[in-house]
């Protein structure tokens, strides 16, 4: 398996991966209406373009194609974490999260934060994030609960010197 940075040529494949994963696994956590609303992804939309290319997005790839992706902004915002529906619980999410953490350390980002879904909350928790709030959001006319999570990587050096 190879971890690389996403490019514009990946947009269609990443949108398809997100959509297939939500449709395959969404019914375990969400209503049919929520699953359908979440799976409504347009690879050519500005919103999806920003989700992938507006941050640094890491792609896990093997001979069988793209296995997952995770994105992080330079402000510490973890924008995405998705693993292909037939590759869950195989360590791919952990490899991608490690790439995100390495990126944060290299950029000296002190705090990571995200809005986790029912899908991703366990992965964030596994990597030391803690939940500090929830919110209800509307996506395509359907309401979802999101979980605000964060992880502090380094404390500031206040009072040293």
Structure notes:
By secondary structure, this protein is α+β, with helices and mostly antiparallel strands. It has helices at residues 11-25, 32-39, 46-53, 92-106, 121-126, and strands at residues 2-5, 56-62, 65-72, 78-83, 111-116, 130-139, 142-152. It has a domain at 2-109: Gcn5-related N-acetyltransferase (GNAT) (Aminopeptidase), CATH 3.40.630.30. The strands form two sheets. A four-stranded antiparallel beta sheet has the order 1-2-3-4, with helices on both faces. A three-stranded antiparallel beta sheet has the order 5-7-6. Helix 1 packs antiparallel against helix 2 (32-39). It is globular.
Key terms for this structure?
single chain; 161 residues; alpha+beta; Aminopeptidase; 4-stranded antiparallel β-sheet; 3-stranded antiparallel β-sheet; 32% helix
Could you give a quick summary of the protein structure above?
This protein has 161 residues and is an alpha+beta fold. Helices cover 32% and strands 32% of the residues.
Fold topology:
Blueprint: E1 2-5, H1 11-25, H2 32-39, H3 46-53, E2 56-62, E3 65-72, E4 78-83, H4 92-106, E5 111-116, H5 121-126, E6 130-139, E7 142-152
Antiparallel strand pairs: 1-2, 2-3, 3-4, 5-7, 6-7
**Integer average pLDDT:** 93
Number of helices: 5
Multimeric organization: single chain
| Secondary structural class | alpha+beta
- Biggest β-sheet: count, sense, barrel? 4 strands, antiparallel
Q: State the helical fraction.
A: 25-40%
Order of strands in the sheet with most strands: 1-2-3-4
């Amino acid at each position: 398996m190879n971890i690389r940075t996403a490019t514009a040529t990946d947009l269609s494949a990443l949108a398809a991966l997100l959509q297939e994963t939500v449709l395959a696994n969404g019914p375990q956590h969400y209503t049919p209406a929520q699953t359908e609303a979440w799976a409504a992804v347009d690879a050519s939309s500005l919103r999806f373009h920003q989700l992938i290319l507006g941050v640094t997005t890491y792609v896990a790839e093997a001979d069988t194609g793209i296995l997952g992706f995770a994105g992080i902004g330079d402000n510490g915002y973890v924008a995405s974490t998705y693993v292909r529906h037939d590759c869950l619980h195989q360590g791919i999410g952990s490899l991608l999260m490690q790439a995100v953490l390495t990126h944060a350390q290299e950029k000296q980002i002190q705090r990571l934060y995200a809005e986790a879904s029912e899908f991703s909350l366990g992965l964030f928790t596994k990597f030391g994030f803690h939940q500090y709030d929830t919110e209800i959001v509307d996506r395509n006319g359907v309401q979802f609960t999101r979980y605000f999570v964060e992880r502090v990587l380094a404390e500031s050096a206040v009072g040293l010197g």
